[in-house]
Amino acid sequence: MNNVGLLDDELGSKIAVEMTNAKRTPSSTVEAWAQLRNRTDHPQQLECRVLWYFADESPAEEPTAWQRLFLDPNSFETCKGLSTRIDVEYYYIEVRAGR
């Protein structure tokens, strides 16, 4: 929980997860984010989404839609997601190669 998973094995050598965190919004929902760095000299296209969980680590709601990110060589971008419920406690961010 409260982590990032790279779904494609080849991403481990191309992408670094620089940091991840979450915060409550003014309406008490949760915004989770992960900063992803392109470690290559080539542009990368990624997709990411956020999964939400209750305090007992059971699924709380449907995952967010896949968000497409374009990373220039040796640059970083941030994947963000917002929960719709106020009673979520944990998040898990999935990252895959762009399709």
Count of alpha/pi helices: 0
The overall strand count is 8
Q: What would the average pLDDT be, to the nearest integer?
A: 96
Q: How much helix is in the residues?
A: under 10%
Residue fraction in strands = over 45%
Radius of gyration: 14 Å
Topology as H/E string?
Answer: EEEEEEEE
Question: Strand pairing plus helix content: what structural class?
Answer: mainly beta
Shape: elongated
Low-confidence stretches: none
Please give a structural write-up.
This protein has 99 residues and is mainly β. The chain is 0% helix and 57% strand. It contains no helices and eight strands. The chain has strands at 3-6, 15-24, 30-38, 44-53, 59-61, 67-71, 76-82, 90-97. The strands form two sheets. Strands 1, 4, 5, 6 and 8 form a five-stranded mixed β-sheet that branches. Strands 2-3-7 form a three-stranded antiparallel β-sheet, with no helix packed on it. A hairpin with a 5-residue loop joins strand 2 and strand 3 (30-38). The radius of gyration is 14 Å and the shape is elongated. The two termini are 25 Å apart. The mean pLDDT is 96.
Name a few traits of the molecule.
57% strand; elongated; 0% helix; 8 strands; 99 residues; mainly beta; three-stranded antiparallel β-sheet
